[in-house]
Amino acid sequence: MQTILVAGAGKSSNYLIHYLLTNASRNKWKVIITDANLAARQQKISSYSNAVGIESDITDAVQREALVKQADLVISILPPTLHILLAKDCLKHKKNLITSSYISDEIKALHNDVKEAGLMFMCEMGLDPGIDHMTASKIIHSIQRVAGSITSFKSYCGGLIAPESDNNPWHYKFTWNPRNVVTAGFGGAKYLQNGKIVELPYERMFENAKKIKVGESGQFAWYPNRDSLRYLDLYEVPEVKTFMRATLRNPVFMKGWNAILLCGLTKQDDAIDTTRMTVSDWVRKVTVCPGDFSLIRHIARLLDTSEDDKIIGLLQWLGLFGDSPLPGGTMCSADILLSVLQDKWGMSPDDKDMVVMQHEIEYMHKGGKVKLNSHMVVIGENRELTAMAKTVGLPIGILAKLVLSGKIVPPTGVCIPTMPAVYRPVLTELAHYGVVFTDEVA
User: Are 280 and 320 a contacting pair, CB within 8 Å?
Assistant: First the structure.
């Protein structure tokens, strides 16, 4: 019997754990699921004879190493900063590792040792990053096989609320890690446009958002996602003049979020004592609004707009001008904002989310320019079985099955899923779960 260790049992692991447990008996797997708090998960796994739930502190080296030693393959759904702890144990005990997170500098530094040990540390194996890498690589390789020369590559992805559950003026609800939404773009972005490197600071990330159309799903706005240039060599597109990865949101959201940013409400480097503070007290303090002056008028002036502007209405709907009490303690503004947004943007039990991804690729073939548009839309079932959890978790589960069953020879080193031996079988199985792309060529 082979053993899979899944570290992390949060909301994003729902589909992954369900997939592994439904495949456990026929594949003779034992699935160990460990988390600091397994109470909510325990009931769901108790009906599976091959499942074991263990509450543990992953920062405890003794507990962690004991779990890794008994596994044949390790999957980490932990916060990104904790992956390195498992990675070092996996290297020590010669275990393959899969995560959905971006490759950190710490894990990247293990590449030579991992490769020499003949191990696979597959990172960025979720949605974005993950499915984007696999589908983009599939398209790029197919173009290169017919001697096409790719000149422009743009990839967009967004975790959004489905139209049938879109019932607030922001057209947004939390379908993923809420804090990541609040701090999105904080490090700025870098991409290639018409042969020139564009560097965009955080302060300008959400201004003048441009729009794109995705199939029949309508128009979305986008902002550039982190450092796109790090993937230039990995995607092997030497002739490309434009190369960008971006995140999708509703156009209204982008305008409202830019206003929140301009007001300084997403700061992570301040420290505010919120004891006996209301939401409006905090906004006054951060924006330096005099106590006897209208807060709405102050914010309107700060944003160079009128008090009846739609953006002011968006901020008012969030309760930023109201007297709701804040949780006590010393917090940064980003965390205060998160506490305000949790109720406003929380999903109801029957709400459905939506994942949208689109690749736009231009290439030269036989002297002519070709434009390829490839897009995917996945709708979730409810607050627990979300499209986000599905598209993040299934690629990980499928790869784990392929490796343990010997259907593929795992690539060695610290890598991402851009190789045909990985993306072909994973994408084939994902299609059975409704994760499919529609291509249009012009």
Answer: yes
Q: What is the pLDDT of residues 320-365, one digit of tens each?
A: 999 999 999 999 999 999 999 998 999 999 999 999 999 999 999 9
Distances (CA, A) of 410 to 67, 98, 120, 423: 22, 11, 6, 12
CA dihedral 427, 431, 433, 438 (to 10 degrees): 120
Q: Six-digit token pair at 44?
A: 């769901």
Q: What's the length of the chain?
A: 442
Contact 243, 153 (CB under 8 A): yes
Give Cα 209 to chain centroid, integer Å: 20
The half-sphere exposure of 105 on its side-chain side, counting CA atoms within 13 A, is 0
Residue of 81, 104, 226 whose CA lies nearest to 157: 226
CA distance 49 to 156: 41
| Residue pLDDT, tens place only, 154-194 | 999 999 999 999 999 999 999 888 988 999 989 999 999 99
Could you give the strand order of the β-sheet that contains 120-122, starting from the edge strand earlier in sequence?
Answer: 51-55, 29-35, 2-7, 73-76, 96-99, 120-122, 413-415
CB atoms within 10 A of CB 330: 10
What is the C-alpha separation between 217 and 140, in angstroms, rounded?
A: 25
The domains of the chain, with CATH numbers, are 2-127+386-441 (3.40.50.720), 131-251+349-379 (3.30.360.10), 271-331 (no CATH)
Q: How far apart are CA 135 and CA 138, in angstroms?
A: 5
Whole-angstrom distance, CA of residue 250 vs CA of residue 171? 6
Asked if 390 and 372 count as a contact pair (C-beta separation under 8 A), the reply is no
Measure the CA–CA gap between 201 and 156, rounded to whole angstroms: 19
CA–CA distance, 160 with 175 (Å, rounded to integer): 7
For tokens 């589908």, what's the residue?
A: 135
Residues paired with 191 in a beta bridge: 198
Contact 161, 353 (CB under 8 A): yes
pLDDT score recorded for residue 53 = 87
Strands 242-249, 149-161: parallel, antiparallel or unpaired by DSSP? parallel
Per DSSP, 161 falls in state E
| Cα–Cα distance for residue pair 120/114, rounded to 1 Å | 7
Question: How many C-beta atoms surround the C-beta of residue 234 within 10 A?
Answer: 13
Nearest by Cα to 260 from 294, 230, 303, 301: 303
Q: How many CB atoms lie within 10 A of CB 230?
A: 12
Residue for token pair 């996602």: 225
Using alpha carbons only, how large is the chain's radius of gyration in Å? Answer: 23
User: Distance (Å, rounded) from C-alpha 237 to C-alpha 338?
Assistant: 39
- Is this prediction's pTM over 0.85? yes
